[in-house]
Write a structure and sequence with these properties.
By secondary structure, this protein is an alpha+beta fold. The protein has two domains: 105 residues, Roll (PH-domain like); 120 residues, C2 domain (Immunoglobulin-like), CATH 2.60.40. The strands form four sheets. Strands 9-6-13-12 form a four-stranded antiparallel sheet, with no helix packed on it. It has a four-stranded antiparallel sheet with strand order 8-7-10-11. The chain has a three-stranded antiparallel sheet with strand order 3-4-5, covered by helices on one side. A hairpin with a 2-residue loop joins strand 4 and strand 5. The longest helix has 36 residues. The chain is rod-shaped.
């Protein structure tokens, strides 16, 4: 704002500039200190004569008056100035939010996910006696936690609590894998499941309880309690 065409290109400095002007090769000079769009308010005074072509813009403690070529051009200047101001403010807000998320990602995430592995239900039998010694490995990215082992059962009660750092609601996925602990041979796989944080976030902070079907096995479920705590942006 607050520019005027150079006389060598656009003729006289008094030449009026409007939306219908076709000065494609014009070069403009700033003749006053620029006004930042996030600091202006277009004054729409209902008492102003509707036939008047002057409009006013408030900037901090000053008011600037501008005269347009016509009423329609005055209205267009007012509308476009308000639109540009709103767009500028929204763009700046989004930029700050992105910067905050980027800093949070580098310095420890955007929040915490509290998980309680409550129990397993109808797990498959892995031992010769028709039972298992189940435990869970729970991970999110490079973060890993493990529940205790509950011996000789297909319906273990773990009640194990763990906390994960949330780095991205769009990308973080909670992975749960159930194993049968064996002392003298590799642990047996009892199923796995996943929970995307993108599906959790619309539900709010929680806590809420999820019953998740285990995949790659014939039977089995796990019951978990989830609580999501995000930092304010």
């Amino acid at each position: 704002m607050l520019t005027r065409p150079r006389s060598s290109i656009a003729g006289s400095l008094s030449k009026k500039i409007g939306f219908e002007s076709n000065e494609q090769d014009a070069i403009y000079d700033i003749y006053r200190k620029p006004i930042m769009l996030n600091e202006v308010i277009v004054k729409r005074n209902q008492e102003v004569n509707p036939e008047e072509t002057v409009f006013h813009i408030s900037h901090i403690d000053q008011t600037y008056s501008f005269r347009a070529e016509s009423k329609s051009e005055r209205n267009r200047w007012m509308d476009l100035t308000e639109k540009a101001s709103t767009t500028y403010i929204e763009t700046e807000r989004e930029s700050r939010q992105k910067a905050h998320r980027a800093r949070s990602f580098r310095t420890g995430g955007i929040g915490k996910l509290k998980v309680t592995m409550i129990e397993g239900v109808d797990l498959i039998a892995s031992d010769p006696n028709g039972l298992s010694d189940p435990y869970c490995e729970v991970s999110m990215g490079s973060q890993e936690h493990r529940t205790k082992v509950v011996p000789q059962t297909l319906n273990p009660k773990w009640n194990s609590q763990m906390t994960f750092t949330v780095k991205s609601l769009e990308q973080d996925v909670l992975c749960i894998t159930v194993f049968d602990r064996d002392l003298f041979s590799p642990n047996d796989f009892l199923g796995r499941t996943e929970l995307s944080l993108a599906k959790l976030s619309p539900k709010g902070r929680g806590p809420w309880q999820e019953r998740l079907l285990l995949h790659e096995v014939e039977t089995g479920e796990v019951v978990v309690k989830i609580e999501l705590h995000l930092e304010a942006t």
